[in-house]
Please model this.
Amino acid sequence: MRLTVATWNVNGIRARQEQVQVFLEQRQPDLLCLQEIKAAPEQLPVWVTGIDGYWSRWHGGKGYSGVALLVRDTVAAHAPVFAHPAFDFEHRIVTAELPQATVASVYVPNGGKDYDAKIRFLHGLTELAASHAASGRPLILCGDLNVAHRDLDVHPKERKATTIGQRDDERALFGGLLGHDLVDVQRALNPDVPDLYSWWPPWRQMRERNIGWRIDYILASGALAGHAETCVSHREIGTSDHGPVVATFEL
Model:
């Protein structure tokens, strides 16, 4: 069984609706995790009433934050149980219980306005990962984690140790998250490759010049990650300041 997993911070689903529809039609991911949808369910009638071939949960508020999770019905024959862990706030996480694994679409706070909230959320993610590792339940955690794990994940022109998203304490928390049997799939497949960026500052043609950060991830439990074949950031897709990241697994 081949499983295709995609994550994409769309920076406003209403502005990017056609792009997401084209992405679904062309890429046909089995799991699609979206972040920063910036819309409440009642603002999304086309999506919430159902997308042919997918179970979905849209979890957002008007104009800010928000996540979504779409599951192809070939992966789950019946509607999965969607949930929001207790540490959720500002519509930042949705999970789905699938036969193969628990899947989470996650949007970690940037931290610029409330750094403590970002740290608390990262601790919550770590506890979620720890509980799955302890139970042996596989976990696929996808989304905009707003931390560049290593200097390699930031273009040299953008590196600054005191900048939020590159700070030592954030990176230590990210490492702790991985310590609970989670693998950064893209980095595992490309251990020393630079330029795998997924976000670019929206000025001075940074995207065109590929001067960016890698802050969007597909993390998977070790047993699943060992079956990963590809994991690619797609700079060429869409007009969000983030590009989608797509991984394939042969299970």
